[in-house]
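Annual report, structural modelling task.

Input specification for the NAP complex:
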Amino acid sequence: MKALYFEKFGGSEVLQYGEIPQPVITESEVLVKVDYIGLNFADIYRRRGTYHIEKHEPYINGYEGVGVIVEIGAKVTRQQVGETVLFVDVPFANAEYVAVQSEQAIQLPIEIDSQLAASIGLQGMTADFLAHDLGKNSPGEKVFITGISGGVGQILSQMLVADEIEVYGSASSAEKQALALSHGVKQVYPSRETSWVKTLEGKFATAYDGVGSTLQQSLALIQHRGKVVFFGMAGGDPVKIDPVALMSESKSILTGDLWDYLTSYEERKKRSERLFSYFSKGQIDISEPSVFSLADGRQAHEFLETGKSIGKVLLKP
Ligand SMILES: NC(=O)c1ccc[n+]([C@@H]2O[C@H](COP(=O)([O-])OP(=O)(O)OC[C@H]3O[C@@H](n4cnc5c(N)ncnc54)[C@H](OP(=O)(O)O)[C@@H]3O)[C@@H](O)[C@H]2O)c1
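The model returned the following structure:
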């Protein structure tokens, strides 16, 4: 089968496209013929060698995809051949076929097609745990989201708006700012300049920060007893934080990794159903994904890495 792989860590130039052996499933796995693969910022960190990646020779990136089950293991009872499933935490996804543990395969409701599922799976499940397990905001509370028109940002902001939270955020371009406003966000500030930060200091219950280099700014934006929900470094590593300084203002930083919130079939089912229900009710609308052929994976990495994308980047085998 064809796959996108790399032999050493580095820039997008390390990515190669070629033939590798097709996976052989175990009795608890299903074999998925992949329709769409979700590209994520974590794949960039993995390619650079700065984030956990499953051992394999050569390395095969990617943990998120949607496809049709073409074979099931002898002990699999939850799924059937021919069903379309989503997975968000399965390694070696940058390939035509992926072996998926039955408990990691998520069934899709009729109204969610495979391209939409691949566009919202990992980022949507992330938005779900950030909002419902970490942020836990009450209706009427004010929150701030950095990178509000990125993939997680678009879903998280609309999820919170639907939950009656007052959402504010930052985005770099006029196009991204307009997009967030069209999603019911109250006000969007330019992310590449900071003159507005002073006027908003201490105004928010929670700042959701997946940009990372903005951590100090997010801490300034929250009120005493407020919290920063820190979940990524798309814009660069955060500064080191002094816990004593946090304590003196009763501010907290909460963090989380999606995989710790997807530890069983039941948890995947509960989270995916809650996520899909926002879409079924028409409460979340996302931009069209940018689709690259898997063979053009290098260009897709460069597109995501430079922050040019609005919404999801997909790879199609
Ligand atoms: N903790 C978890 O479990 C988890 C799971 C999934 C994702 N994440 C993290 O969530 C963050 C957002 O992920 P995503 O999939 O939504 O990515 P994305 O679609 O690429 O969005 C990231 C946003 O970050 C902003 N940004 C600011 N400075 C940037 C820079 N120097 N380069 C690139 N982007 C920059 C961009 O918005 P502007 O151009 O408007 O500033 C961009 O829209 C990432 O840090 C990712 O690692 C964490």
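The chain has a mean pLDDT of 96.
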